[in-house]
Amino acid sequence: MATNIKDEPMEVEQVEARILELCLGSVKGVTDQQLQTLIPNISPTQRVTAVNKLLQNGKIDLMKSGSQLVYKVKDPDSTSKVKGGDNQEKLVYQIIEESGNKGIWIRDIRWKSNLLLTQVNKILKSLESKKLIKAVKSVAASKKKVYMLFNLEPDRSVTGGAWYSDQDFEAEFVDILNQQCFKFLEQRLELAADMNVDPAARMNKAYATSLDITKYISELGISKVELSVEDIETILNTLIYDGKVEHTIMATATGQKKLYRAMRQITQSTGLMRTPCGVCPVFKDCKEGGIVSPSTCVYMKDWLDINF
Hints:
4 domains; RNA_pol_Rpc34; Arc Repressor Mutant, subunit A; DNA-directed RNA polymerase; three-stranded antiparallel beta sheet; transcription; 46% helix; nucleus
């Protein structure tokens, strides 16, 4: 009778090779329960010894997926910078690395690593001292810090982008950009009006792309940070909401292009339209005691301060 391979005793090296093979074959990793099922002819001691040896040799990683611990094949580049660190330090480093430039909160690090707060704090201080990670304040919460790799530039959702400095909204900077963008479009409109061409051509000449406006703002040198086209389009959108600018989209050979043009007020608006209520998109939901209320409307207060 032939001997079943599953019933043959396995050496420690064979157990290691089998565990490594299973980890390589699973993108999501292998749980301890799966190891017991897939390698039934080894004792718990053999399994633990083989797993610990693979962890010590840096061939696999211990991660947390939901409520379960899983073993994954180690990325050769993922923790090579954590020299001299123990397995817990390498685990925390990898968790932070996986969060990318959006970072990760300490509570989530604790949950994924299954470590105590004191252990996580100690590891984070060690990694920070080695300049492998950094703590970044998030605009989402003044007291909240997220951790990310030291060489990464934080995502806009963390820093707030160009409109924030040390978590404070730069209202004055935004106002200046608003004025300069409108000034550029006004000048474009005036130049187009002086052209000796038909009305349709004059209107087309008054349009400018968001890239044109971005270059203009960049050449002015009024921003300490480099503004992207998306940043300028955000400013242009505020001008559209204010009724100062209109925009259209033109199809091109490579896709679409956004065009913007300053608007001239042909007639004086009525008294109602000059009040915030006249252009308020949630006017019908406005009532005393509601989420939108006349007594708490900041736009109404500003309008009253200016006119009375």
